[in-house]
Amino acid sequence: MNMQHKIDPITLEVVRNKLDGIANEMESTLLRSSFSPIVREGLDASASLFTLEGESLAQAVAIPIHLATMIPVVRRISSEFPPSTMEEGDIYLMNDPYLGGTHLPDIALVMPIFADGRPIAFAATMTHHQDVGGMAPGSIPTNATEIYQEGLRLPPLKFRSGPERFDETVIKILRLNSRIPDTFMGDIHAQVSACTVGAQRVAELARAHGGNMMQALFAELLDRSEQMTREALRKIPEGTYTYVDYNDNDGIDLDRRIRIEVAVTIRDGKFICDFTGTNPQVRGPFNVVPSGTQAAAYYALRTITGAHIPTNGGCFRPVELNLPEGSILNPVEPAPVNSRTATIKRATGAILGSLRGILPEIVGADAAGEMLALMFGGTDRNGRRYVVGELIAGGSGAGPESDGVDVIETDATNCMNLPVESFERDAPIRINSTRLRRDSGGAGRQRGGLGIEREYEVLAGEVVFTHRGERHFCPPSGADGGESGMTARSVIYRAGGEEEVVPSKLVTRLFPGDRVLILTAGGGGFGPAADRDRDLLRTDIANGKVSREQAKEIYHLADD
After folding, report:
1. Locate the Hydantoinase B/oxoprolinase domain: which residues (predicted)?
2. What integer pLDDT is reported at residue 4 of this predicted model?
3. The dihedral of CA 20, 25, 27, 28: what is its sign?
């Protein structure tokens, strides 16, 4: 802390809450202004404020993967464009994973915030763009074998000089590399609007307190969160704890499981995650650059240290990572990375799973741990190109005192599936049915959350369809005697009567009359199934969550 600025604790708390409010206002602006359904309805975008050193200062309630992976993005941009050279209104962008990004659809925009004629912080947003080119509509081809097939790569670029002068060359490049350029640029400008709101609000706050005082407050907020986080870690039993889990496959070698192994050491206020033993990098696009595993560790740390600690970069200072070079968590360029979310989620689950034995009141059974991504791309009846994506969840794991939650994103993701009306408005595809998947939650004293069943039918035209699934072969584990959740399953029913079981990952073509049925995994159960309260079990049956057959065979419910 700069001792020239005495910190008043009341002012500090007022400013902290104001910064959180600004980040959430940025997020609201971003979602409300976006054009694409994956952002407007699916909420796949995030906003945050940063110090000039690239530490997160305040985060919106958004996507944990984005909020963490923006950290190296901001640092990379500020290293290539030093803040001392920036002018008010400048905006910078990038997405390249090997330069600090995460995957190509996630484009970050960063804007300096000025006070007293100089930059004091950054406003930043990251949006998952519906299409940034590449070999398949939606830009997440599960059969990619190098990053060049995945879409447009953007190094750190100056996108706008001052408040009005956008780089028209960059705009032309962006538009020419997307199948849906108007939607793409609409979402880009939504990011501009959100950054502008953040910069204006923080500048207003700085006018009340002064730029130097604001930076002193920033430093104090980060230091306090670091101190509180280290204190929380010191209350957890020291030791090294291990866990192993698997992804289904890499989209290329469909019968080969992908090992994620972690040893978590808690010692002297440090949180050390060593992924030695994890699978070498794979041919398919399920590799993760280091920023992704950083996001997994940050999320896990915040889960176990308590919501009372303000979330900012200070919380993350105790984290140390060992990511073997050439592994799936630290691949060598040009390894493909577009489907990295599945691996980040598995890494997050492994970190938390390693701590289940010492923190059973916090870490329950395994969640479904999948964010099923479906991409549909084609041309509608009017000749208009469309790309529509769905992000669909399974069930969360049960805990010692509560059932899992049905159909909810867990750990490092926080998206929503699309409302039927929104999806059908944007593509000539009908959603025939949506329902909870009965019996999918792992049986236990506390039952795992259920997955979902959803069926799509192509009405017109040829569709390029991408299916990025998980948990088709490796079920979510139960805990303390609870049963595993049901594995996922997807089937294509062709108009001619043929059936094709999707092997977790697939890029194919659909035609009018073809139907796709998806069934996501349930969460693991907690405790022996025979110990479940009989009244709760009867309510499950009445609500269609558990069949009478499962109640009798697994829960041993006597006939009423």
Report:
1. 8-528
2. 55
3. positive
